[in-house]
Amino acid sequence: MYLSPRHSEIIQMAKDNGRVLVDELATHFNVTPQTIRKDLNDLCDQRLLSRIHGGALFPSGIENMEYEARRKIAADEKEAIGRAAARLIPDNASLFINIGTTTESVSKALLDHAGLMVITNNINVANRMRIYPSIEVVIAGGVVRGSDGGVVGEAAVDFIRQFKVDYAVIGASAIDHDGALLDFDFREVKVAQAIIANARHVILVSDQTKFERTAPVRIGHLSQVNTFITDRCDIPSVRKICQEAEVQLIETSLSWMGR
């Protein structure tokens, strides 16, 4: 398959950063946004990228993106989601925080809380929170994934099942329009399912790019969570599920409008 030098560079940028944006590409290549939109449409037609509003994602239907690339995707949106989740969790609460770059944003926003007991299978979360004396951190045992510091496997599942906590903060690699919560690693999914089953209030945190992605392993369903925090949800079927299942939907990008 022949790719022009500009197309090849766009693909590499998307691979390195997880996504590319029309305006940034237009500036980078010194061309019009219309030219970039045509480039992205051509690359998406060849299934080399997946179109999103304002840009495109590097596709990841079977394999997850590298951790650093995922961390860069929607970084500002994840920070806002993290702050919104932290506002729901009071001092002196017990909670699970699982694997994911958005759940890590929640852990960052919780650092000003007192009296928390945090149980996690995320080494990055444990390392960030352990130095705060007002927060007790308990980390699961199991197999550590070198790619992102996630602790997975049966040992982690058994560990999680020893607890019944006030809150769980979970993420997902993809959210299907039918409400299915999806991931890539079946070992991680088993831990996430144990977390959902052993929390009184489950908070799903995910930015809107997860509506554009796919993954092969089912975690559960949106109707199983109590609160869903995202930057924006424009998927009617997902909004309907939240309404019918009485899932509180919080959209951080709409907060400035008083919604």
Automatic annotation (TrEMBL):
<dbReference type="Pfam" id="PF08220">
    <property type="entry name" value="HTH_DeoR"/>
</dbReference>
<keyword id="KW-0804">Transcription</keyword>
<dbReference type="InterPro" id="IPR014036">
    <property type="entry name" value="DeoR-like_C"/>
</dbReference>
<dbReference type="InterPro" id="IPR050313">
    <property type="entry name" value="Carb_Metab_HTH_regulators"/>
</dbReference>
<keyword id="KW-0805">Transcription regulation</keyword>
<dbReference type="InterPro" id="IPR037171">
    <property type="entry name" value="NagB/RpiA_transferase-like"/>
</dbReference>
<feature type="domain" description="HTH deoR-type">
    <location>
        <begin position="3"/>
        <end position="58"/>
    </location>
</feature>
<keyword id="KW-0678">Repressor</keyword>
<dbReference type="Pfam" id="PF00455">
    <property type="entry name" value="DeoRC"/>
</dbReference>
<dbReference type="GO" id="GO:0003700">
    <property type="term" value="F:DNA-binding transcription factor activity"/>
</dbReference>
<dbReference type="InterPro" id="IPR036390">
    <property type="entry name" value="WH_DNA-bd_sf"/>
</dbReference>
<protein>
    <submittedName>
        <fullName>Transcriptional regulator, DeoR family</fullName>
    </submittedName>
</protein>
<dbReference type="InterPro" id="IPR001034">
    <property type="entry name" value="DeoR_HTH"/>
</dbReference>
